[in-house]
Write a structure and sequence with these properties.
Layout (H helix, E strand, L loop, with lengths): L24 H23 L5 H8 L3 H8 L1 H9 L1 H10 L2 H19 L5 H15 L2 H10 L4 H35 L2 E3 L3 E3 L1 H10 L2 H8 L18 H9 L2 H31 L5 H32 L5 H18 L7 H15 L1 H12 L6 H31 L7 H28 L11
Antiparallel strand pairs: 1-2
Helix pairs in contact: 1-6, 1-8, 1-9, 1-11, 3-18, 4-7, 4-18, 5-18, 6-7, 6-8, 6-10, 6-11, 8-18, 9-10, 9-14, 9-17, 13-14, 13-16, 13-18, 13-19, 14-15, 14-16, 14-17, 15-16, 15-17, 15-19, 18-19
Length: about 450
């Protein structure tokens, strides 16, 4: 539905191809459901860390900057780079088997986090979680694009992306209660011995990955459909295909990366602000933020898809970019208000607004990319988008607030709120500017998309 902003198919790459019939609605939405469950599981595994900031810092003797690296760089280190070779595998081999292997691996690595006795071992285990989770989105994007036509794909991928919000909400809601329960009832495992609260939490949140991996074996993968290339494209073909649209694609990719930095920075540090500035416990912070995330992120994902569909229905152009650029402007105001509010309820309202609008771009822009690249390029094109999105978002989003607090405010615990607001507002400003530039560049080719290939 939003695909026009990227451009036309490459005639040089396309061959004669009779597409297979679309899967039934039951099969298509069955794949959405399983992918959503996997995404929820992955987000719980990665997000639970943010509720255990102070306990992990105390046990391992690390600073806010080091925790930012643990939450961001350790996960993103191979989550981003491993996505490139995994994208090639997605374009060539069974996506169902790739997702199955990824779920099994990140489940094992999450359990390994619970065995870590020092900062280095926990860092390396988090790297492993990132490698496993890197399989999911490129394979899911490609697979869902073979389940839904252009008109329905944006909503389907937005529903998939909403799983991240549900996962974050569950991580906060259940995570806070889980931490409280384990604190009262210490856990001991055979051959492992007594576990710290945070170590036991990692073991428990990893368990849902086992049945989800088994569920993947029950579904039949849909046949590939799309442009039907005569030959398997190389990485060079993929890069040339995207480079022909650089005026749109460069600000688009980097703009989405800035949006991701806002989202991941907020998810990493808002719990710490609640505990340090507003004096709530981890359990209370998890409950309140869990409700906020469960409501705001799916609302933003689905709302963004509906807005884009309505723009398309009224004859508008480049709806994914238009919605994303407009949402980024709202994010600027919402994140700046973090330091202006005085009560916890007002702060939660600002967080709700931020997470609603920051969630809008992801699903619709990922869907647009799938509809306008050949099927045999979708995995690698998606991996490149995720490399930009997560390379910047997962590293700088969690890192910079902690680094700014350590270097500019002397590590004062209560100053993390100001450091977070400053960081997120700057990223939101860049996102709005870059996505507006992408929208403007796409407009120059509107009505003559083939000119992008010249």
């Amino acid at each position: 539905m939003q695909g026009r902003f990227i451009g036309a198919e490459n005639p040089a790459l396309s061959g004669t191809f009779e597409p297979p019939p679309w899967p039934s609605a039951k099969t298509a939405w069955g794949w959405v459901a399983v992918c959503v469950l996997a995404y929820i599981c992955s987000y719980i595994d990665r997000q639970i860390l943010s509720l255990m900031v102070d306990e992990i810092k105390q046990d391992l003797g690390i600073s806010d900057s080091q925790f930012g690296l643990l939450h961001g760089l350790s996960f993103a280190l191979l989550y981003c780079t491993a996505g490139l070779p995994l994208g090639s595998l997605v374009d060539r081999y069974s996506r169902r088997k790739i997702i199955f292997a990824g779920v099994a691996f990140w489940t094992a690595m999450t359990m390994a986090c619970g065995l870590a006795k020092n900062y280095l071992l926990l860092f390396l285990a988090r790297v492993g979680v990132g490698v496993g989770e890197a399989t999911l989105s490129p394979a899911a994007y490609s697979l869902l694009a073979d389940c839904f036509d252009k008109k329905r794909l944006g909503r389907a991928i937005s529903v998939y992306y909403a799983g991240g919000g549900v996962g974050a909400g569950i991580a906060f809601l259940a995570g806070g209660s889980l931490i409280t329960a384990i604190s009262a009832w210490p856990v001991s495992l055979p051959l492992v011995g007594d576990l710290r609260t945070w170590q036991a939490v990692f073991f428990i949140v990893a368990l849902p990955g086992i049945p989800i991996a088994l569920m993947l074996l029950l579904l039949r993968e849909p046949p590939r459909r799309g442009n039907g290339l005569d030959t398997q494209p190389t990485w060079g073909d993929v890069l040339r295909f995207l480079a022909a649209r650089w005026q749109t694609m460069v600000p688009f990719f980097i703009g989405i990366a800035c949006v991701a930095a806002v989202s991941l920075g907020a998810l990493s540090w808002v719990p710490a602000v609640m505990m340090r500035v507003y004096g709530v416990t981890a359990g209370a912070a998890g409950l309140e933020l869990g409700i906020v995330m469960l409501l705001s992120i799916p609302l933003g994902m689905i709302g963004g898809a509906i807005l884009a569909e309505r723009i398309d229905a009224r004859g508008g152009r480049d709806s994914a970019l238009l919605v994303s650029a407009t949402a980024s402007l709202v994010i600027v105001a919402a994140t700046a208000s973090f330091v202006l509010v005085e009560t916890r309820s007002a702060y939660l309202a600002a967080v709700f607004c931020t997470m609603t609008f920051v969630s809008m771009p992801f699903g619709i822009c990922a869907a647009a990319l799938q509809t306008m690249v050949p099927n045999e390029m979708r995995g690698r094109a998606s991996a490149l988008l995720l490399l930009c999105q997560n390379g910047l978002g997962m590293v700088l989003g969690p890192l910079l607030p902690g680094l700014l607090n350590d270097q500019l405010f002397g590590g004062e615990p209560r100053s993390i709120g100001l450091a977070l607001s400053m960081t997120l507002s700057v990223f939101a400003i860049f996102a709005a500017i870059l996505l507006a530039l992408a929208y403007r560049a796409a407009g120059k080719h509107h009505g003559n998309p083939s000119s992008l290939m010249e």
